[in-house]
Design a protein that fits this description.
Distance between the termini: 48 Å
Number of helices: 19
Number of domains: 1
Largest sheet: none
Mean pLDDT: 83
Shape: globular
Low-confidence stretches: none
Order of helices and strands: HHHHHHHHHHHHHHHHHHH
Length: 399
């Protein structure tokens, strides 16, 4: 038990590091941990302790990732589409408020998803065999729905196609490690950073404000996230950001507050849904669960409860750590030169991509950045850039 507690504590520290440092993702640390463990095979670390470490760092990273996506414009894979609403808050001097909204959704959905997990388990057991046969059809319908709602449907389709072709090429490059690092950073992060620099963007003085939001709006966002998150958990290549977009279309609520709460809710509950899905159908839906599945080929009910207990124990202190660090970032970003910060972050991302993914990553990064500017130039939604994952998944199922 002591080794599990120690590894969970180390997981919290690693999750904070992964959440705050641009370009360092929890999946990367999980993979590195597996490699180190296999190489030295320490007798004092049990397989279950290592799983606790990986699960904890991924859960903590989900909370902390709202800080760089808000203050630095560098998205995590689960927060790529929240970047613009959060950045709008930042420009108004309310970056901390954007983080609070994300955390309200994150912590609320964490509790709600654990409470409603028995219902999810029941529904999966009776519907999974049908849903898995419809994956390509559902993905095509979702893509078409998002494209057809645009005024310029051709430009929306063109954006989806460009990102999709780049995604297929990138994901099939054998010599490229961590392909999502240059791909998603180029499509979503770099255009925002470059725009900030070229526009000589200046930030308003950041102030610590709190959202004026009714409990009814919070419960609505969490309820919608439970439904859409459960459905989207079965669809490969779709994550919290895409579920939030689709949820907003269904509820017809396009407010920034609701959207950020939805992103927060879906980003955190994805971990809980993923571990439950692994328990039910032995399928890993994200990088952390894939790493865990290499250690534990299957989990029973006791192990599922073990991971849920970690979620409850780690979630509350992580909430306060994120709020504390967000206040510090809010103070720092007000005093610093934002253009200089953007340049430093861009250089850091470029260097990290080179170290982790190799020289070929720069070709992907630059190409993805060029495609990432298409929505800004044409004024179509950036969610079509998720064709980088959706198109390859559709082709996989159809061919």
């Amino acid at each position: 038990m002591l080794d599990i507690l120690l590894m969970s504590l180390l997981g919290i520290i690693a999750g904070i590091f992964a959440g705050l440092v641009p370009g360092i993702h929890s999946n990367l640390l999980a993979t590195a941990s597996l490699s180190i463990y296999a190489a030295i095979n320490p007798s004092f670390i049990s397989p279950l302790s290592l799983c606790a470490f990986i699960y904890t760092l991924s859960l903590v990273n989900n909370f902390l990732s709202f800080i760089p996506s808000t203050y630095l414009g560098v998205p995590d894979s689960g927060t790529v589409l929240s970047l613009m609403p959060a950045h709008q808050y930042l420009k108004e001097g309310k970056g901390h408020e954007a983080v609070i909204l994300s955390l309200i959704g994150a912590y609320g959905s964490m509790i709600a998803s654990i409470i409603t997990l028995p219902i999810f388990i029941f529904l999966v057991k009776i519907s999974y065999s049908f849903i898995k046969k419809q994956v390509p059809i559902l993905l095509i319908l979702i893509a078409l729905t998002l494209i057809l709602r645009e005024k310029s449907k051709f430009l929306a389709f063109y954006t989806f196609l460009c990102a999709g072709i780049l995604g297929i090429i990138t994901l099939n490059l054998q010599r490229l490690n961590e392909p999502l690092l240059p791909l998603l950073t180029g499509l979503f992060g770099m255009p925002a950073l470059i725009s900030s620099i070229s526009a000589k963007e200046s930030l308003s003085q950041q102030v610590i404000t709190f959202p004026e939001i009714k409990p009814k709006e919070i419960s609505k966002s969490i309820s919608v996230s439970l439904i859409s998150g459960s459905i989207f958990s079965f669809l490969p290549s779709l994550g919290p950001s895409q579920a939030a977009v689709f949820s907003s279309l269904i509820t017809k609520d396009s407010s920034r507050q609701s959207y950020l709460m939805l992103i927060g809710a879906l980003n955190t509950m994805s971990m809980i849904i993923s571990i439950a899905t692994f328990y039910l159908i032995n399928k890993a839906r994200n990088g952390a669960i894939v790493a865990i599945s290499t250690i534990l080929p299957a989990i029973d009910l006791n192990l599922l409860l073990f991971f849920l207990a970690i979620t409850l124990i780690v979630g509350y202190p992580t909430l306060h750590v994120t709020l504390f660090l967000s206040r510090k970032f809010s103070y720092f970003i007000s005093k610093a030169n934002y253009q200089l910060i953007s340049i430093i972050v861009m250089v850091l991302i470029t260097v990290i991509s080179l170290i982790i993914s190799g020289p070929l990553s720069h070709l992907i990064l630059f190409t993805a950045t060029a495609i990432g500017f298409i929505p800004q130039i044409t004024n179509v939604s950036r969610n079509h850039l998720m064709g980088c994952l959706m198109l390859s998944t559709i082709m996989y199922y159809l061919l």
